[in-house]
Amino acid sequence: MKSKIGKNLIYNISYQMLAFLAPLITTPYVSRVLGPHNIGIYSYNYSIAYYFVIFIMLGLNNYGNRQIAKGKVEGNGNVERIFCEIYSMQISIAIIVIMGYIFYGIFIGKTIIVWLFFPYVLSGMLDINWLFFGLERFDLTVFRNSVIKIFTIILVFVLVKNSDDISIYCLLMAGSYLASQVIMWMFLRKIIKFHWVPFSVFRKHIRPNIILFIPIIAVSLYKIMDKIMLGQMSTLIEVGFYESAEKVIAIPMGIVTAIGTVMLPRISSLVKTDEEAANKFFLPMIGVSMFLVSALCFGMISVSTEFIPVFYGKGYDKCILLYMILLPSTLFLAYSNVVRTQYLIPFEQDWIFIISVIIGAIVNIVINTLLIPRYASVGAAVGTLLAEGSVCVFQIVASFKKLEQRESIKCAITFMMNGIIMYASIRKIYYNNNMITILLKIAIGGIVYIALFLIEYRKNIKVAISK
């Protein structure tokens, strides 16, 4: 069991390394070729299309994953039955939502960019990642994502040559989502034979799926809606700054998500057979998540002044401040992600999850409304930071007794302090060349951070290895 978890973690973190390299490769090129305004156009229209996609998916990435994982414990026949029931529901909802997007494109959007994102909306109907996650077949999804991402990177460099190619860029991004879903259907035939089931059969999945959709829509209010609010209350250039900052900040967030994606089906399976064993994973995963994210968060803040002009080119100086505000939000996200994927969802504590993200959404909307008109993208970044903080604090308080979180909070604070010490030790390092300064900070910062870890956790390392 542990070897399979380790293998799945390697698969997902390996993919996240590719996801880490992808923006490092393409963003410097795209930011210079398209410019902040066109990046803002892309981000604004993507954000709107995203809302249609999440209304297709509802809460399936969590609900479908959990149900398939539990069905696997009961037997393969149950997996096929559950998949056919849930996917029949997904198709039915998708048809209605896609018709809604067509209406939006004809009567409201009225731009070619809107239609270029239609393949992305269509991908929501074909998205069956939740099945493979529930079956813990991460090798297939990682292989698929890696191939599509590499191919997309190549096409961006070949086809996007100047600011007039914004349409090509949008189509490439939207098409990559659709292609990635189509590929998974090639693997499906070897696992499950799909057959349509009527509404009377799949209706039982609607209510629990909608319950898990509530946090999805709430989270979107401070992940996606902030860009739409920026576009409406400020300028598309500000949306471009915000989008550019978020691309690189997604790196630590991606690693956290990879860990949660692997652990959710495993914990969901254990809940059916051994609750005590399921709870034992919590503290180690807090340690792994906070170790990685604290290093990336404070490391990226320390190099932001040199990194921004090298990475994005001229005209993106505002991203330095956005980095410093947005990156600490990943610390809250790392902790709350472990609480969510290893306790709230597997143990069906859905309402704690729902209430927490509703609180986060309210905080974000209020802060955005107050700050965006005056501070634009900086106001949106503050809203995101406070929203993630409020979600994390509520989830900690609500699950404090069940998870005995004193040790995990102590662990998280220790890693954050290590990150702060690392930042303080390298922030004033300077050389005449920005790239050399960045490399020096990374090298010295890495040594300091690892040294602090080895000093404070040498005994814990021996215990962890022995287990």
Automatic annotation (TrEMBL):
Subcellular location: Cell membrane
Keyword Nucleotide-binding: no
Domain of life: Bacteria
Chain segments annotated as transmembrane: 9-30, 42-61, 82-106, 112-135, 142-160, 166-188, 209-225, 249-269, 281-301, 321-339, 351-372, 378-397, 409-426, 438-457
Pfam family, one: Polysacc_synt
Keywords for this protein: Cell membrane, Membrane, Transmembrane, Transmembrane helix
UniProt topology in membrane: Multi-pass membrane protein
InterPro entries: Poly_Biosynth_Transport, Polysacc_synth
Signal peptide: none
Protein name: Oligosaccharide flippase family protein
